[in-house]
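yo, UDP-glucose:sterol glucosyltransferase is done. seq:
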Amino acid sequence: MRILFAAAGSRGGVAPYTGLGAALRRAGYDVALAATGTFAPLVRDAGLEFRRLPAGTRGAGGGTGRRELMRTAAAFATELGQGFADALDGGADLLLLSATTAPLGWHLTEVTGTPSLGVYLQPTAPTGDFPPVVTGARSLGRPVNRAAGRFALRMADRVYEEAVAKLRHRLDLPPLSPYAMRRRQERRHWPVLHGFSTALVPRPSDWRSGLEVVGNWWPHHDTTGRLPTGLEDFLSAGPRPVLIGFGSMASGEGERLSEIAVRALRRAGLRGVLQTGSAGLAADGDDVFTIGDVPHAPLFPRLAAVVHHGGAGTTAAALRAGVPAVPVPVTADQPFWAGRLAALGAATDPIPFRHLTAERLAEALDRVVRQQAYSRAAARAARHMAAENGADQAVEAVRRMTGG
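structure:
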């Protein structure tokens, strides 16, 4: 049986599917992953077939306005939709859709009759338990949270309007709005598996049937590989360092952020590892080391803490390693995950990206490293996550759908 993942966005929105895809391949399925060209090596390293999607990745820095984000997202969706149908040219018996590709993939399934399953990395369905993850808003009570969740979905529908119209025209389908298609799928109880831990987000009791939280899907990495020699030497040369990185965020902010990071580390009396990322962080010195792309799994357990942007993948990886965090959220769902970490006691209160200073970061680092309550909370969450196996649960769900 041929399974096709369709995922689009930043690295954090694609990498988890490499691990899930590898698990499905071990279970006997032929697996392909459609993503933008940047991720071809990541996909192929996991032993999966790569299919190219046309759009570039989305990124955002500090100070980006909400209207501009909406315009950028709509342009991204439209570009993605123009070539989305091509990803199915190689055929598929089951389509696994991320939150960013589902609003397009549904229309392909209408034409082809291919069954589909949602594989989401964020909770998107309205609930009274919390406000929509993309707003970064505080909870205002259950009725308001649910209303805000419905409004957020309508805003997402608007992002896909042009993309869906053009895709349906190409597929010779009659016009249908993104809202109408989404409501159709909801009424059919279209199944969605959510690949995050219940340690961070327990399944809301007011969710409709068909929505499940199964645990994290971890990016594929070579378990026989070793950390780069220079990094290994730095880790062994002194006390556990702090990692500071912003993933695909903060492009062009590297010089400012590097200065803040080094000043904060030295003010707190800590060693540090700077991860370059899209921002371009870099510094030299006996007490600081710069790295590029290094898998989280072998590195994070050897750290004292992680300073990160609050992306879902980095948030989960730090918790899995039992390492406390200082979250510095930039945009989108990052304030949500940062708040969840803090609520668990495994992180300091988030420092909004636009308010980041060396002084604030140093004070947070001093607390998170030296007050053991943060490490104990992270360790408790790590034990909870170790009892979950999101990949196995997803494989079983696929077997039930396919009868295989």
